[in-house]
Amino acid sequence: MYTNLQNEVTVMDKTDRKNAVGFAFSGGGLQGIAHVGAIKALYEMGIKPQYVSGTSSGSAMAALVAMGCDADDMKRVAEKYWKDLVKFNPTSILQSIVALKFSRKNPGDGLMDGVIVEAMMKSVMEEKGLKTFHDLPINLTVCTNDTKSTDEVIITTYEENLQNEYVQYITDVPVEIAVRASMSFPGLFTTCNYKDYNFIDGGSKDNLPVKVLKDMGVGKVLALAFDVMDYTPQTGIDGLMKVIWRALDLYSINGTRKSMEMADYCVQIKNENTALFSMDNIDQTIQEGYNCVMLHKDEIMKIFK
Fold it and tell me: Of 171, 119, 184, which Cα lies nearest the Cα of 145?
């Protein structure tokens, strides 16, 4: 079903990394599917990364790229699994709230269980004959946050000996757990408990993880972000989720702007027609990601080719 790349991760020294290419994928709910179109465009240009990083839904896209998936593979995964992630309607919300109030069982700390995220990642890993971070053909970095220590937690393929205040770097995490941790949107998905950590969505601190790639010595980093000024208030359930997401954007917007400046090039994808938690217009969303990258083809080719 999926493109099969059996190469192991190449561990580059700092000198080699000066010429390495990295992609940083931002979060953005279902808008993250636009990254599929971005990858299609970049691969058509012959530009492929040796390093990828991602936050929230961007972590899922980064993980799929790191597994060796092409755009067609990524679309198949989205169509198969993401519909289960977005089964979020007034009835399901009401049922979840009632369960929170009246159930004798511990319902957790979110309206939806994030196990589906784990299942999605684990399925693709198994299809491609991969088991751990070390098996991935492309180096992967995933960003999340720990509610206990309040630190940002960055999960990497290998120990990088990086040190930053209030940031922990760890390596001993399964890929499916790392992605679930980064996608644990507060209140929507249950938090992700792993060992002594209690992880929540990485976007609350770093929604565009460019800095970690630069800290690792990656020479050329392309940031794939969503237009921070592209926001239209809405009503209804999707409007509710959109304003919550926008609030998180506002908390992290200065960091996102710094990340855009730090990147060697940044493509801001406009995706105003895509609902945060809806499978409507998935083809259009992917096409918008493709078109946005192609608009910048000349500039991207000058830097990354």
Answer: 184
Tell me how far apart the alpha carbons of residues 40 and 180 are, in angstroms, rounded to a whole number. Answer: 24
- The CATH superfamily label for domain 21-304 reads Cytosolic phospholipase A2 catalytic domain (3.40.1090.10)
Biggest alpha carbon–alpha carbon distance for the chain: 61
The residue extents of the domains of the chain are 21-304
3 state SS of 55: strand
Smallest CA-to-CA distance from 301 within 272, 263, 265 is with: 265
Residue 192 burial class via C-beta count within 10 angstroms: exposed 0-12, middle 13-18, buried 19 and up: buried
Cα separation of the two ends of the chain: 30
- The 10s digit of each residue's pLDDT in 36-82 is 999 999 999 999 999 999 999 999 999 999 999 999 999 999 888 86
* pLDDT score for 158: 86
Residue 1 CA to residue 283 CA, distance in Å, equals 20
pLDDT at 98: 47
Q: How far is CA 237 from the centre of its chain?
A: 23
pLDDT value, residue 234: 55
pTM for this model (two decimals): 0.86
